[in-house]
Amino acid sequence: MTRDMVETDSAPNSPFYSQAVRAAGLLFVSGQVGQDPSTGKLAGPTVREQTRQCLKNVKAILEAAGSSMENIVTATFILRNPDDFAEMNDEWKTWFHENPPARQGASLPVEVEGLLVSIAVIAKE
Q1: Full-model pTM
Q2: Hey, what domains does the chain have and what are their CATH numbers?
Q3: What's the pLDDT at 110?
C-alpha cells in the first residue's frame, strides 16, 4: 500500500509528524490544535476559539488533499478539561449541521500551556 504525505502552509506544521497521510482511499489527519498557522499562537484562551481553529486547520489540510469537511468519517477530540465539553460541542455543531461524522473523545494526557483541545479526523478522499 502506498502512502502519500499531505502538507499545507495553511495549517501548523511539525517536523515530527505529517499533517495528514493518504492511504487506501482515506486521509488520516493528525491531531490539530488551536494554533493559528499565520501567527504560531493559540487562537484564544477559550475552548470554543481553539476548537474553531482546530477545525479550520483540519479543513485546510483536507482541502489541500482535494477533500472536504463533508468527507470526514470519524473524528477524535481530546480535551484538557472534560468540563469544557459543552463549549467545544457548541462550536462543533456550527461545523456539522447534517450527517455529522462518528466521534469519540478523551482527556489530554499531557499539559501544554494554554492548550485546551486537539482534533484528529479520518476522511474519504
Answers
A1: 0.95
A2: 4-124 (3.30.1330.40)
A3: 75
